[in-house]
Structure formats: structure tokens, C-alpha cells
Amino acid sequence: MMTEKELQKYLLHRFPKEDASCDWKEMKNLKNSFSGDPHKDVISYLSGISNMEGGHLVIGVKDGTLDIVGTDLSKFNYDKTSVIYQMVEMCPNLPSEGLFIEEFITSDTNKVVWIINIPKHLPRRPVFAHKKKWQRIGDSLVELTPERESVILSEEIIPHDWSAEIVEDATFADLDKEAIEKALEGYCERYPKRANEARSWSVETFLDKAKVTKNGKITRTALLLLGKEESVHYLNHPAEMIWKLQTGEERAAQIFYPPFLLTAIKLRGEIRNYQIKIFPSNALLPSPVLKYDQRSLLEALHNCIMHQDYTKHERIVVTETSDSVRFQNAGSFYEGEYYDYIAGEKTPTKYRNEFLKTAMLNLNMVDSQGFGIHDMFEHQRNRFLPMPDYENSTDTHVVLVIPGQVINVEYSTALMENSSLDLTTVFLLDRVQRNKPISKEARTKLRELNLIEGRHPHIIISRQVAQLTNMEAEYTDLKGFDDDYYKDLILKSLSEHKKLRRDKINKLLFARLPGALNNNQKKNHIDYLLKCLRKAGKIHVGPKKYWELGPGEDE
Questions:
Q1: Helices marked H in 210-317 — which ranges?
Q2: Alpha-carbon distance 382 to 195, whole Å?
Q3: CB atoms < 10 A from the CB of 45, how many?
Q4: CB atoms within 10 A of CB 160
Q5: pTM above 0.85?
Q6: Residue 505's CATH number
Q7: One domain, residues 190 and 333
Q8: Residue 555: pLDDT above 50?
Q9: Where among 108, 141, 157 does a domain terminate?
Q10: Residue 104: in which H helix or E strand, if any?
Q11: Cβ atoms of residues 402 and 296 within 8 Å
Q12: What pLDDT is recorded for position 183?
């Protein structure tokens, strides 16, 4: 509460002059002046200030002097909420985010002053009032000039950063003390040269410098990372991470709320991460390793938090099965595809939640160089386990699966141990071995290196990879034999049995045809073999559709 003189002094200090971003208005009758004559009423000034850089409209003071005259709102049943609603309704394109009213009532004279905080127009969307567009030039209000409109219409569209918004009703009392201490510890690890100085800062100073808060105000980022569980309601968002356990023997679930800086670690602790045995070829004894790399699990969780599209109002879901952990967050990959980051050569240039990313970087939760995905793949390679995959990701969700068991021990260990293969190549061959699709560009690369054979979509590892990984038998099964081998089988079987129905020929060949073919493709290939033999005059179709030896079409 301030006296009339104190409020006047405060306003003069805060708004020393009228300009393109500020106007003072003595509204003796707000009802008539709110939406009255174009060029003179409140909504015209809203349009004019918003179409510049945004600013403020001070209502209840005299122009020039800022003498407090007040505004009698009671007889018009106006409150801040209803006025904001009217402003948005009457001013097409006026952003609602950042539009709010500060109300001051003098303690000695009970006069009401409003400061309307007016956000800048959205890119390429000028704000209207009375079906016209307005702007400020100095302290004058005029219709939008062609030059100014051209500037607005050519502005770059920058996506809205949900994580950067200030939560007006939240205070530092809504932040968790343990989380703040952990945040300071992470900041000092990230910036060791500043550690001594940082430990002397106040909480408010530290969080501002770490880009968690803004000018001493609580942001959505601050509540996500450091907020108390009971303060989550300020976000108006289901800020939750769900862990689900689904195995043949067990089913369980738990919900984790902010502060995510702490609870991400607690969620990781719920994942069953016992030791498994790997058999590297260069070792006499099996090597025990944890089923999942602890750093990778936390990296995956932090990526979900950082990249989540919070405008979708969804939860982060972590599903654990007997042989893998699945992480899902709302939103697609924001820049590029996951395979762009496997080699560690790509650095992202933009983020969906830029403010949240910066805070997590400063608190040593993530890096910003694009190494996170690379490191997860490298950790998996070093442990001789199948590569992580994002193949279930869609345009609306990113889905990461980290395998926790070896599919083919000999293949995996030999492939991972081969230092001549770069990480991206290992990843691609791992997908081929698991019969997972790879891109046309990837197929071209592997084919040039003589690492794969076959025609899309039936790609198999090459003979040299099979020999390298002791998978000769599997290679032969997948590749099959040449056509002469199958033709000889047909002729030898007809020689022994004199005649065969087609289903018997299918049974004879199915198990011997390439394992990469499905049943329909195998039937089609047998059709081709029989046609070739018939045209060569070696077989024909006899009575009751039996195949027999004898003159075919050429004899």
C-alpha cells in the first residue's frame, strides 16, 4: 500500500515520459472511454502500443504531471479479469499471454490506478481496434503506416517458449530447498571457476544467474525443476513422470512430480538394473555388467524433460519390461532426426524449450552440443548390447527404447569389438541384424562398404560381416542357395517319387529358401522355379495337377 504522493513518485520513476511504449490517461468515465471513439479510447491505445514493441497504459492519472485522480470502477462492475476479457474480444490479434493489469489503491485517499501491461504483437499479426490498425509515433496515436505494417508482416516467426513464462502467483517459498541445494551443486560442477563466488550468492541471485528465474520472478522452468510437489498446480499442467513395470511376473506403477531435478534420479532408482553376463571374445571369463547404463537412463529422462512439448498437456511415460526400458515424451524431434546425432557431429541450433534447456545446462543436467544421444549409443556399444532405437517415434511423440539384453551374443560382441567400424555403421548393422528398416541413404552407404546384401526390403548382412561375427550359418539361412540348388532338389524328388502335388513341393523347399523371405514371397519364388524347369522341358503338369518329369514347353 502507498499513499497518493508515494504512488505518484513511484509512477514518475517507473514511467518518466510518454512515448511509443507508454501512455497516461485520466479516465473519468472508464465505461465510455474503454471502447468509445476510435483514436481516443482504451482499445485504440492497446492496438497502438502493441503494434510497436508493447508497453504500458496508465489509467487514473493526469497527463504530464501524473497527479493521482483515480478511476471509479465500482459503479461499472469492472474488475481486472473482465476487463482483460473485453480487451482480447475487442482487439483482434491482441496476445493474451503477457496481458495483465496491476491495480494500486492509495492508502490515504482510496484512489484506484490501473497499469495495463500490453504485450507486443505476435509476428506478422498486427493488432486491430475498431477494424483499424494503430501505432504510436512519439506520444501520438495514428493509423498504422505502410512502413510499419511492412515491418510487422515481414517479422520472423519465433515459436513461443512455454518454459520461459513467468508464474505471477508463485514465490520462492514454492521452491524445494533440497532441490535448490542440488541445483547449486550442479552449477558449481558446470562452472568450477565460479564455484566460490556462487556459494556466496543469495538464492534469488543464484537462480537468476543460472537462468532458472527471471529478474527474481518464478518461471515455469523453476517450478518444473525445483518446485515443491504441492506448488505444481501453478503450472496448470500435468507435470508428471509415470514409471510402469510390465513383466510376466510383476506389475507396478508410480507417479513422480516436481522437483524433476530430484525426482528424475528417484525414478531411475525404480528401474530394475541387475547384473547380466557378456562374453567378449578377447576375455577368458564372462564380464558382468549392469543391464542398463546408469548415465544413459538419466540422460534419457532429462531429454524427455527438456524436449517435452508442454503445450500438449501430456505426461512423460517410462515403461520397463523384462528386456528393455521405453521412454516417451510429447512432441517430435525439434531439429533433425535422431540418427543425425549418433556420430556426435551435429550440434542443435534451436530448442523447443530454450529457457528450460539453458537452465538444465547451467545446472549440469544436460549438454547442448548434441553429444547426449551419441553417448547413449557409445555406452551401449561399449557394453556389447544392442543399440538404442527411436523407431517407434511419430510426428507427435518421441519414443526411445534402450535394450537390456543381447539378442545374438556372437554377433553383438564381434560387431561392437570391431574398431574399424564407426558408431553409425555399428548402429545400422545392428538394425539389419534385428530385421529393422534403414533408410535408402544408409543402405547405399553399407552396400558401398560391402556390409549388406539383398534387395530392399529384404536386406541381410554380407558374407564378410557374417564371417567377422561367426554367423556363417545364419547368413546362409537368410541368403539361401542359388536357384540351381532348388531346381536340382525338385528334379531329384520327382525322380524318386515320379509325381508330386504343389503342396509337397512347397513343403520340400520352404525350409531351404532364404529366411529373409516371407511365405508369399517363397511361394512366388517356387512359381518361378517351376516355370523355369517347365520351359526347359524338364517337367510338366500331368493329370490331377501333379508335377511330373518329362517334356515341357520346349519339347
A1: 220-226, 260-270, 294-307
A2: 33
A3: 22
A4: 13
A5: no
A6: 1.10.10
A7: yes
A8: no
A9: 157
A10: strand 100-105
A11: yes
A12: 97
